[in-house]
Amino acid sequence: MSQLSNYVQSVQRNLNFSIDESSGQTVIKVIDSESEEIIRQIPSEEMLALARRLNELNGEQVSGLLMQSKA
């Protein structure tokens, strides 16, 4: 892990690790050190929004959707 951090710093990038509170997903952001611009985010905002939406559904609705797709 330290080798990765050293490499990232040498190319003027920072890594930011966090947890998205709504979905519980780990989020990794690659940030430009000079401009503080987010270069890349894993998972993307779109995927986080999808995870949040799925978390809003209760177990019965999710099970029903899975069963319907198999039938």
Q: How does this model look, in words?
A:
This protein has 71 residues and is α+β, with helices and mostly antiparallel strands. It has one domain (2-70). The protein is 46% helix and 27% strand. The chain has three helices and three strands; from the N terminus they run H-E-E-E-H-H. It has helices at 2-10, 45-56, 59-70; strands spanning 13-19, 26-32, 38-42. A three-stranded antiparallel β-sheet has the order 1-2-3. Strand 2 (26-32) and strand 3 form a beta hairpin. It starts with a helix and ends with a helix.
Number of individual domains: 1
Output the helix-strand order: HEEEHH
Roughly how many Å apart are the termini?
Answer: 46 Å
- Which structural class matches the secondary elements? alpha+beta
- Estimated radius of gyration: 17 Å
Question: What composes the largest sheet?
Answer: 3 strands, antiparallel
Secondary-structure map with pairings?
Elements: H1 2-10, E1 13-19, E2 26-32, E3 38-42, H2 45-56, H3 59-70
Antiparallel strand pairs: 1-2, 2-3
